[in-house]
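Recall that a protein's primary structure is simply its ordered list of amino acids. Everything else, from secondary elements to tertiary packing, is in principle encoded there. The following example makes that idea concrete.
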Amino acid sequence: QVQLVESGGGLVQPGGSLRLSCAASGSIRFFNMGWYRQAPGKQRELVARQTTFGSTNYADFVKGRFTISRDHTNNTVCLQMNSLKPEDTAVYYCNAFMRQNYWGQGTQVTVSS
């Protein structure tokens, strides 16, 4: 079992950057880690994920703009978000998967001028 706490969300202008962090309560070494988002009135969707072996995949709408990374020393997963667009506005959730899903509470990202 693992508990996840996200941070780093906020208000940013279009074209700006944010870095989200997810702190895990224990080792993430054997978890597949990911970031999802949910906009008002929409379903939660995958943004990026990284397997325990370091393999990554990204949603088409963030390719080239977002980067996921993990740090096993500090048990954190980060999402670097560049060139943000208004349509990136959503609550972003950290996810850990090993036989079952674990979720953080989410962090709000608002992209607006």
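The chain has a mean pLDDT of 96. The two ends are 40 Å apart (CA to CA).
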